[in-house]
Description:
By secondary structure, this protein is mainly alpha-helical. The chain has one domain. About 75% of the residues lie in helices and about 0% in strands. It is built from six helices and no strands. The protein is globular. The protein starts with a helix and ends with a helix.
Amino acid sequence: MLMKTVDLIEKWIISAGFAVATLLLFANVVARYLFDSGFTWVLEAVQYLFAWVVLVGAAYGVKEGVHLGIDILVERFSEVNRRRIALFSLFICILFVSIVLWLSIDYTRRIYEWGDLSLDLQIPQWIPYLAIPVGLSLMLLHFIHVGMDIWKGKISSVHKREGMEHLEELEEMYK
């Protein structure tokens, strides 16, 4: 239930972020060309929206297994060793994301304490920066979930093997 809720929130943030950013940019272009006046705050708002979209989208990419994975050497190992390598690489990913998450929480806290406002939107600066710890927290959650699936033997790698699936389909077709 928790993962379904997280999935829904991630999809909503990604979709709404893209939609609002697109509409804002379109409105700004129309205002500039038709009325010779644009909105000064639109570019800043779009930057912040894209920060949220990219960071939450990267976490969602971990869940879906769409991040790039080069496993040409790993494929030569046995299934057991492939799982070991996948778990080791996942451990490195979790360690890296945990360290950056910790640092981003500290940095966002400092920005909150400073009380700075963004230039054009005049919102507290910590709100856009909150995208970093939120996105990394989601990524860490998904890495842990993928790690449990690898540990249980449900999957054998962090990424999906689309090429292998297509190769197997082709082999079946020509048998």
